[in-house]
Amino acid sequence: MIGLCLAMFLSALDQTIVATALPTIGAELGDFADSPWIVTSYLIASTVVTPLYGKLADIHGTRVMLLVGIAVFVGGSVACALAPNMALLVAARGLQGAGGGGLISLAQTALADMVTPLERGRYQTYISVVFVTSSVAGPALGGFFAHYLHWSLIFWINAPLGILAFSIANKTLKRLPLRTHPHRLDGLGALLLGAASGLLAYSLSGRGGAAASSLALLALDALFWALFVWRLRRAEEPFIPLSLLQNAVARDATISSAFGLGSFIGLSVVMPLYFEGVLGMSADQSGTALIPVMAGTVVGATVSGRMMPHIAGYKLPALAGLAIAALSAAALAGLAQSLALPWLVALLTAFSLGVGAMLPICTVSMQNAVDPRHLGSATATMQFVRQIACALVVAALGALVTGSGEPGSQAFALADLVMRFRFAFAVVGVCTAMALFFLARMEAKPLRGK
């Protein structure tokens, strides 16, 4: 279990740890203009390969593909730390993303190989806690390394942790029976999905240039998605099994988790801007104020995960939590500007507690409902949809909060900024309500004991 948590920690951490170090990296390498590509290249590569890892895990076994992912990730990390210029650093980040893209879904799949659905909720809690904690803690660690030590440590730290994760996972998973199935890889489907998801990730990163170029990219992206859907209907063995898309429980669980996690990550991204831009807090104070957000998610995931095998209506804690989260977001939209900081933090904590309660329920319910032969593809598909949802929500909230104004301009007058955040909080509330709707609609099938 430790090896799986370490693998997930590395992947989730590296999605966010670099952002706060970009100015320092750009200054040292003499290239500010291209520094956002350090984030973009990782995002695109990790998004593209996530479904591929799941399919290959169904064919060759989870252990093999998890070890491949860790090895590629560590190799990419070392290349990043040694990169002498921006071009090589961006390329190395792409390699790192190609390894990291499979670690989260493969860790969840490996857990499903180790324990039955009846027992999985308790263990899934650890996975959820590691993912959320590392995602939120990433910016603080990145800023610390870049400001007080050296930015290359952001990548060097992955080497010993990755080697440790490789060693533990190899030893632990070797004891399990090899789970392989005679699937065929639909190469054309994989290429079409990779192109579609890569273009979408690129467009959402804001690197598309002018409006006309962005629209052209989105049109091309829509074409690739249409071709992928066409291939799903025509292929003898589709890249994503049609049985997964037709499985109501898997579909509702995936959509619910995508809306819920998207709202959480989106709020985690914009709240530091609110603390600093509206309340005038420092970066350190902003980071401290977010600690209860992490704590709330940990508590919510722990409580619902441990209750799951003991109650027939195992959705109830998550449903109650999401209802509280939606109400908290609505309160933020209506009252945030008039609330004292302790009350604001209390609402954020209530929100994160509710979303945390949802995370293990959705993952275990989906895995419990699908054919074990497609477990890798199903888990990777859920993670893929979550990544796309998070990117969409973050892009939408970023556009709402920043618009086209510049700090100090009329567009960024305090009253206008507060109104922008109110709309952003309202969007978070709508996303959370959608997560609640799809979870309520999901059938709570009895958990398998084997």
Please provide a written account of the structure.
The protein is mostly helical. The protein folds into 3 domains: 185 residues, Up-down Bundle (Growth Hormone, Chain: A), CATH 1.20.1250.20; 52 residues; 201 residues, Growth Hormone, Chain: A, CATH 1.20.1250. Helix content is 78%, strand content 0%. The chain contains 19 helices and no strands. Helix 7 packs across helix 17. The longest helix has 32 residues. The chain is globular. The chain starts with a helix and ends in a 9-residue tail after the last helix. About 2% of the residues have low confidence.
Question: Can you tag this structure with a few keywords?
Answer:
Growth Hormone, Chain: A; 0% strand; membrane; mainly alpha; transmembrane transporter activity; MFS_dom; single chain; 450 residues; MFS transporter; 78% helix; 19 helices; MFS
- The value of Rg in angstroms is 21 Å
**CATH class membership of the largest domain:** Mainly Alpha
Helicity range of the residues? over 70%
Task: Please indicate the percent range of residues in DSSP E strands (runs of 2 or more).
Answer: under 5%
How does CATH name the architecture of the largest domain? Up-down Bundle
Question: Unreliable runs, pLDDT <50, ≥5 residues?
Answer: 404-411
Query: How many β-strand runs?
Result: 0
Tell me about the largest β-sheet.
none
InterPro entries: MFS, MFS_dom, MFS_trans_sf
Organism: Methylocystis heyeri
Main location: membrane
GO molecular function, one term: transmembrane transporter activity
